[in-house]
């Protein structure tokens, strides 16, 4: 009688499990996500990541981030250049008796804190306005001395300058000592400004350098500047430098080592990098043939003459069980906003059924005893 009861309960249990519909699991099975992709009315496309497919993919537009340009390095003068807004200190020496420039008994006179006007000139008594902008301090001193010879033939001139706003740059954030920096010469570069500000703050993920010049913004990564000295661009007065963490990210879900949002920790993150960052896939749950990357392209990617996907919504599939899939995953670049989904293995559903059956029989044994 007890054996018959167990058999009846077994049949009831199987029918119950079958009728319950989807079993408890942490992610979708690959076939559930890609189902219907081959139909004409499908609103998404599926592309396996292989060596043969990668060359075409490189011509597709990027997604998830705005494209910025950057300026190459150029050489400037190693000397200071006077600009409007700078302040000059002028000392005039004259040994002549009855000098027009000096007080009785004095041998020198000081013209302190003479500000260079917006049109690049300064005013000197008995001489008038003299244009000094775009000259080095030494060149401006020689010009001023020549102008003074008409009223004081034996005079000598000393001149020093303090940089004004146009001869300085602002390092706004992301460094240990942000603030306004005076440009020592016309070869002052981005990396020199960062160094003079105490270096980049620790903890910034893949620091990005944003250079604002007038109404134009340029952007690159600190990594690129370190690797290519030709990109260490020369600064202009009034430039603003902002150092910030890379704001790009990707998401991970499913049978992944960790389901989370991850920042880009380098300029280019491959699919293999992403798998490593997220802790791989769950050994007892994931389908190694079904790592999926979901991406949405703009409508412009489907325009005539534009190389791109067949649909805006795209599912890329990676097979980690063969060499082509592994090598191709290393050369497939993740875009900001991508979703990396480790699909569930179909076998794990069988395990769930046996787990439920085992639990049920435990309850049956308890009941019959």
C-alpha Rg (nearest Å) = 36 Å
Mean pLDDT: 86
Q: Architecture of the largest domain, according to CATH?
A: Roll
- Terminus-to-terminus distance: 13 Å
Number of domains: 4
Name the CATH superfamily assignment of the largest domain.
Outer membrane lipoprotein wza domain like
Task: Provide the helix percentage.
Answer: 10-25%
Count the E strands.
16
Order of helices and strands: HHEHEEEEHEEEHEEHEEEHEEHEH
> Taking strands numbered 1, 2, ... along the chain, how are they ordered across the largest sheet?
1-15-14-16-12-13
For this structure, the CATH topology of the largest domain is Outer membrane lipoprotein wza fold like
- Percent of residues in beta strands? 25-35%
User: Which geometry do the CA atoms define?
Assistant: rod-shaped
What is the top-level CATH class of the largest domain?
A: Alpha Beta
Low-confidence stretches: 349-357
- Structural category is alpha+beta
Main beta-sheet annotation: 6 strands, mixed
The number of distinct helices, counting runs of at least 4 residues, comes to: 9
């Amino acid at each position: 009688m007890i054996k018959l009861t167990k058999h009846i309960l077994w049949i009831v249990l199987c029918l119950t499990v079958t009728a319950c519909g989807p079993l408890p699991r942490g992610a979708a099975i690959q076939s559930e996500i890609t189902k219907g992709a081959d139909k004409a009315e499908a609103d998404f496309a599926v592309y396996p990541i292989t060596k043969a497919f990668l060359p075409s993919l490189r011509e597709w537009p990027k997604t998830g981030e705005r494209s910025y340009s950057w300026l190459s390095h150029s050489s400037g003068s190693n000397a200071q250049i006077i600009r409007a807004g700078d302040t000059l200190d002028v000392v005039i020496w004259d040994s002549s008796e009855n000098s027009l420039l000096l007080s009785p008994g004095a041998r020198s006179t000081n013209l302190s804190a003479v500000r260079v006007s917006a049109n690049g000139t300064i005013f000197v008594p008995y001489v008038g306005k003299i244009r000094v902008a775009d000259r080095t301090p030494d060149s401006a001193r020689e010009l001023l001395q020549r102008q003074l010879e008409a009223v004081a033939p034996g005079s000598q001139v000393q001149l020093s300058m303090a940089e004004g706003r146009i001869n300085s740059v602002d390092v706004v954030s992301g460094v240990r000592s942000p603030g306004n920096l005076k440009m020592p010469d016309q070869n002052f570069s981005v990396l020199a400004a960062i160094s003079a500000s105490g270096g980049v703050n620790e903890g910034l993920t893949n620091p990005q350098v944003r250079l604002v010049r007038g109404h134009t913004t340029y952007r690159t990564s600190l990594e690129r500047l370190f690797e290519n000295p030709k990109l260490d661009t020369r600064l202009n007065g009034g430039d603003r430098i902002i150092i910030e963490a890379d704001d790009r990210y990707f998401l991970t879900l499913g049978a992944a080592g960790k389901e989370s949002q991850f920042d880009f920790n380098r300029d280019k993150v491959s699919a293999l990098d992403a798998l490593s960052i997220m802790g791989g896939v769950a050994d007892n749950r994931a389908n190694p043939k079904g790592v999926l990357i979901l991406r949405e392209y703009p409508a412009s990617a489907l325009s005539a003459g534009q190389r791109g996907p067949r649909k805006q919504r795209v599912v890329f599939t990676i097979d980690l069980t063969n060499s082509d899939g592994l090598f191709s995953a290393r050369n497939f670049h993740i875009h900001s906003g991508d979703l990396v989904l480790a699909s569930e293995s179909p076998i794990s559903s069988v395990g769930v059924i046996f787990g439920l059956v085992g639990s049920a029989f435990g309850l049956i044994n308890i009941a019959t005893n």
